[in-house]
Amino acid sequence: MNQPQLAPDKPDLIIYCQKWCDYMHHLVNMLQELGWSFMFIDLRFNHKAGQELISVLGKPVPLPVLEFGGQYYVKPELAELPDLLKEGRGFRFFRGIDGSKT
């Protein structure tokens, strides 16, 4: 298995966050195990990226947000992530602020 990169030139996905939580630890471990490249954009230090997310998702922006295949996804369920990534389909759903799948 290839070692994943934390800041590759062209990552498979981007994780927008502000702080670490249990979800983030599990997400990163899972991505590393699956060999996916990813990078972090910490919105505390990248205000431009934060404004772009607000323009797409509205305010407030629930975090973390994953960008994959040109789409934004709010905290997708970790249990579904490995199969979706392995199949190369991306994420099937956007999790809304209220937790509903759309």
From TrEMBL:
InterPro entries: Thioredoxin-like_sf (IPR036249). It comes from the Bacteria. This is Glutaredoxin. It comes from Natronogracilivirga saccharolytica.
